[in-house]
Amino acid sequence: MNVLAASNVLADANTLRLNINALDYGILGVYFVLVITIGFLARRAIATSEDFFLSGRALPAWVTGIAFISANLGAIEILGMAANGAQYGMSTVHWYWIGAVPAMVFLGLVMMPFYYGSGVRSVPEYLRRRFNRPTHLFNAVTFALASVLIAGVNLYALGFVLEATLGWPLWAAIIVSAFFVLAYITLGGLSGAIYNEVLQFFIIIAGLIPIVIVGLHSVGGWSGLQNAVAKTDLGAKAFETWQGTGIPWTNTLGDWVGIVFGLGFVQSFGYWTTNFAEVQRALSAKDMNAAQRTPLIGAFPKIFIPFLTIIPGLLALAIIPKLGKSDALPYNDAIPLMMNHFLPNGVLGVAMAGLLAAFMAGMAANVSSFNTVFTYDIWQQYVRRDRPDGYYLRVGRIVTVVGVLIGIGTAFIASGYSNIMIYIQMLFSFFNAPLFATFIIAMFWKRVSPMSGIAGLAAGTAGAAIMHFWGYYLPYFYPGGVIDPAHATVNAQMVNFYGALMAFLLDALVTVIVTLRGEPKPIEELAGLVWGIPDPSAPDLSKLPKPQWWQSPKLLGFGALGLTVAVSIIFL
Amino acid sequence: MSNEESKAPVSAASKLFDLRVLIGGLFTLYGVVLTILGLLASKAALAKAAGININLWMGLGMLLLGVFFLLWWRLRPLHREPPPSD
Question: Which of A140, A392, A417, A442 supports an S-S bond with A124, CB 3.0-4.6 Å?
Fold first, then answer.
């Protein structure tokens, strides 16, 4: 099994083993006690299935907003983005600025009224009401599958890091970590998950800040970092974000078409606007205004977090030039290596807590969205209908346990890639890219026919898969346009972005063709689901209390976009 | 006549505790611990962190955040709206 081979290699390197002392363990211990306590306390507020799966739709915007961004700060984010920073340089900001903020703003300003206003309990449920049951089942099953796989990836990465840094055997690290997440979600439901995500956000930030402060100081500030990185193989390219993205391209992430349309539009919107793990945090908000502000509030930290993940990656590259050149020193080791290099006991314990918190946040988001979709969309729709509410509450708890067990099982699949991000992006591009095409057409075109939903999704998924394999044979995706026989120098991220683009185009094409040959849904069934068809039973917005000026979604949304443009220009 | 319909369960979401006291408490605790560690910092710890007394600075920062949450919790308590009666 690859897992064991990898762990043996790491044990030889030994530079990852942290000098953790009793104080650090004490800091960690207090944190874990608090995590479980939150689960127990949240349990008291659960009486209905909606309490368990959607927090009773009662949470304030600051909580859901922070949870929204924290749910995304999983293993993928922290280790993967630092690894990307070491491998691609500052271009990695594209995943944050163009590749997240516009989509988050769009979700809050444009799509939330349909999600929250229609009263759907999940993203697949929107598809069921808008299209038909085959479309619904396709999305529910692929989402559920993706959720447990990604939970497994989070779990594996967590176990891997615990083994390398603390010396725990991999199997023990995985089981113990899974147990904690399982406990507080089974007890506390979505409220337990969300409250812990809010706590985790602050701990994660507190864990990463010292690495950046100490690291930058030790290399001589920003210019010192630039000089140090210029001496590595990555060279001066490390600080180009938009330079070299013309055609022909020299940027580490390829051309602007792939970055803007593949990553910035299709993949980004596909994830942020249709991934139920994120949308669920907004659906748990206490009213429409809070729901709209959820992704908007989350957009602001998203703009600044790259400095806490990319800089450690660049620091690692500057200090350890051999990073990423062999299996013994994969890019993913960047953050643990920097923790060991710079942090004395005390902040080391906090950084460790931050790392573990990041893993738990990501995994909990996957598990809590998985159990909701499985219970409401698969079990309640297709297996056991019309049971009393208490039955589904029990099913939800059982499904949580089963989901975590599957996650543990899949924790051993995520090996063989030196950069976890590529694996995850590939998975996302297959499942997510076509989704946004279907949703955006569904929300704005009344005519869209039920059958076009499943047809479009299937075509789009196939398109992404095809491009993924076909891309290796196209010279354009190789630096300088020259294919090497081993296909090793291909710009894999660029192929990814174009795959997403292909998925979107195919989905849109097939959706339109199938619609034109079919019949639309009757207008009465579309109330609240489509632009221009209001829901007659929705509360009259003019009668609700007016929000404060700082609660205005437009202000927050355009503010976030403006800030993003500003930093993009600064770091051109 | 006995009522055999089971009553639809009522949401208990309004009973959810206020998270701010926990965040505030944890960060105040961590802040105090790290600040003390920073004040007692050894030369070795300072050398590792490129000369910066990082425990001290992080400790003060976390203390600030913890106190902010505790103040927020105290000064703006949650308004418990009673569930609408039908």
Answer: A140
Domain boundaries along the sequence of chain B? 18-75
pLDDT tens digits for range A47-106: 999 999 999 999 999 999 999 999 998 867 888 899 999 998 998 999 899 989 999 999
A312 within 8 A of A334, measured Cβ to Cβ: yes
d(CA A357, CA A154): 11
CB pairs under 8 A, 24+ apart, for A21-28? A21/A345, A23/A345, A23/A346, A23/A349, A23/B33, A23/B37, A24/A345, A24/A346, A24/A348, A24/A349, A24/A352, A25/A349, A26/A349, A27/A346, A27/A349, A27/A350, A27/A352, A27/A353, A27/B30, A27/B33, A28/A349, A28/A352, A28/A353, A28/A356
Whole-angstrom Cα distance, residue A241 to residue A535?
44
Residues of chain B whose beta carbon is less than 8 angstroms from a beta carbon of chain A are: 6, 8-17, 19, 22-23, 26-27, 29-30, 33-34, 37-38, 41, 44-46, 48-52, 54-55, 57-59, 61-62, 65
For chain A, give every domain's residue range. 2-415, 423-533
> What's the gap in Å between the CA of A239 and the closest CA on chain B?
24
CA A321/CA A433 separation, integer angstroms: 36
Higher pLDDT, A252 or A405: A405
Calculate how close chain A gets to B86, using CA atoms only, in Å: 17
Mutation target among B43, B58, B65 for the A interface, most CBs of A within 10 A:
B58
Q: Would you call A206 and B62 a contact, using CB atoms and an 8 Å cutoff?
A: yes
Positive/negative CA dihedral, A467, A471, A473, A474: positive
Of A347, A389, A390, the CB nearest to B54: A347
- Homologous superfamily of A2-415 in CATH? Sodium/glucose cotransporter (1.20.1730.10)
**CB contact (8 A) between residue A47 and residue B10:** yes
A418 pLDDT band, cuts 50/70/90, is very low
